[in-house]
Design a protein that fits this description.
The chain is mainly beta. The protein folds into 2 domains: 2-285, Sandwich (Jelly Rolls); 289-438, Jelly Rolls (Sandwich), CATH 2.60.120. It has helices spanning 387-395, 422-427, and strands at 2-4, 11-14, 20-23, 44-49, 62-67, 78-79, 90-91, 102-104, 120-128, 133-142, 154-158, 162-169, 172-176, 179-183, 187-191, 197-201, 206-213, 237-240, 251-257, 260-266, 272-277, 282-285, 306-311, 318-325, 328-330, 347-354, 374-377, 401-403, 408-414, 419-420. Strands 1, 2, 7, 9, 10, 12, 15, 17, 18, 22 and 30 form an 11-stranded antiparallel sheet that branches. The longest helix has 9 residues, at 387-395. It is globular, with a radius of gyration of 23 Å. The termini are far apart. The active site is at 299 (proton acceptor).
């Protein structure tokens, strides 16, 4: 199934993890097999496998690409000579390991030309890409194209994991082997491991967040008692349609492996004329999320706002959940409606795409929790609403109300401890006053007055 998005030139296939089939040249897909003795139009058949061959069918991901030249014919990769990248993909216990509650201000968008490869900064993570275990949390801030028709042709391959991109400022044009995606703030994109891609900022600059998943792939959460409908609907996930270019112009292909960067010079890797399968990049519009919430009493756990999850072998326990806090109605009676005070075995990194998050105010000297910034509450570190929010929400008259209008916050929540990087601890702009948001908590206890 194909559908138009809000641009005039791009079309998409819809359906999460569907078996899609796409051809830019009619007849380029073989009729009923994957590897005919001769492919149509003199193309080469190449399989891109995102799981082991013998993975269970529901976890088996692969696509067949019919391209002008196979990637095996690339010249050998050599270490990249010049890079300002601050990517990290291994997170052992280090000198910055701490139960400290972190809050960061946004990274600056560079004045000098900086593309996506050079504009990634790793804040924290867990596990190790070489062992395909855990994940990384990155930021990106870019001011230059990776790939254009004039002076720049640079392409990236990520062998370490799947990139989940969360734009905060500026739209992205993502060119891939499978076709192209246009992704705006309030949308997300996922680029699976091994897919060749190039990212351009549509309006000159862009900034946002990345969750790089080393372990497995993202999937839709189970709905359980919610039933068959709700949260992120599968049909709203959009996949690119085949587009190809036939060009012998030299392209720099940068391969990321265990956070090390390698390069080779070759022809355009965007030469896929047709493809079919269930392993491909995709995008999703977060404004289409169907939120579920309490209509009686009590604040429901944030897991009801999960868009995508990557599950561990422990049932119901995520390597990482991608959770959002969208605009919605608050109607719970006799209830403290914002997020409650809590300590959690899961660790939480939060970011803000736009607006003001309901449990935070601009209370610190540096401005508080703002779009492009982030916060980290590691395993068992106490946190919750800022005290001014608590006092206001504990005393106001409760009526049905809109919550979060004009705002969109998100969370990467993981079973693992986050280990902060040197960049996150020393080079990024920390809000050193973050803990002060709880410093004025009052002792209200009175054993002689129940007060409710």
């Amino acid at each position: 199934m194909s559908s138009n998005n809000n641009t005039k030139h791009l079309q998409y296939h819809s359906g999460f993890n569907n078996q899609h089939a796409s051809e830019a040249l009619k007849g380029a897909l073989p009729d009923f097999q994957n590897t005919p003795q001769k492919c149509p139009f003199g193309l080469y058949a190449e399989q891109l496998q995102g799981s082991s061959f013998t993975a269970p069918r529901e976890h088996n991901f692969r696509s067949w690409l019919y391209r002008i030249r196979p990637t095996a014919s690339y010249p050998e990769f050599k270490p990249l000579k010049k890079s300002s990248s601050k990517i990290q993909c291994s997170f052992p216990t280090n000198e910055y390991t701490s139960p400290r509650r972190y809050r960061w201000m946004p990274v600056d968008i560079p004045n000098e030309k900086t593309d996506f490869i050079d504009g990634i900064f790793t804040i924290a993570g867990a596990g190790n890409a070489a062992m395909k275990s855990g994940f990384a949390t990155h930021l990106y801030a870019i001011s230059d194209d990776m790939y254009n028709s004039t002076d720049k042709k640079r392409v990236m391959i990520n062998a370490d994991g799947d990139f989940l991109l969360v734009p905060e400022h500026g739209a992205l044009y993502i060119k891939t082997e499978f076709g192209d995606l246009e992704v705006h703030p309030k949308e997300i994109a996922v680029i699976p491991r091994g897919v060749r891609f190039a990212i351009n900022p549509l309006n000159g600059t862009a900034r946002g967040y990345i969750c790089e998943l080393f372990q497995g792939h993202f999937e839709l959460p189970g709905l359980g008692p919610i039933g068959a409908n709700g949260l992120a609907n599968p049909r709203d996930f959009l996949y690119p349609t085949a587009r190809y270019e036939e060009s012998d112009d030299k392209v720099q292909v940068v391969h990321k492996m265990q956070a090390k960067l390698f390069e080779t010079q070759t022809w355009s890797p965007f030469d896929v004329v047709a493809w079919h399968g269930n392993y491909a990049p995709y995008k999703y519009d977060l404004t289409k999320f169907c939120a579920v919430n309490s209509v009686t009493f009590d604040h429901i756990d944030p897991s009801v706002f999960t868009v995508l999850t990557a599950q561990s072998p422990v049932a119901g326990t995520a390597v990482v959940d991608f959770v959002i806090f969208p605009p919605r109605w608050g109607v719970a009676e006799n209830t403290f409606r914002p997020p409650y005070f809590h300590r959690n075995t899961m660790s939480e990194y939060m970011g803000l795409i736009t607006g003001n998050y309901e449990a935070k105010m601009a209370t610190s000297k540096k401005g508080g929790f703002v779009p492009g910034g982030g916060s980290l509450h590691n395993c068992m570190s106490g946190h919750g609403p800022e005290i001014r929010v608590f006092e206001k929400e504990s005393t106001k008259k409760l009526e049905p109300e809109r919550v979060g209008d004009g705002s969109l916050a998100f969370m990467f929540e993981s079973m693992y401890h986050f280990n902060v990087t040197k960049f996150g601890a020393q080079e990024a702009t920390l809000d050193e006053d973050y803990a002060e948001v709880w410093s004025d908590v009052k002792k209200n206890f009175n054993p002689n007055e129940r007060g409710v």
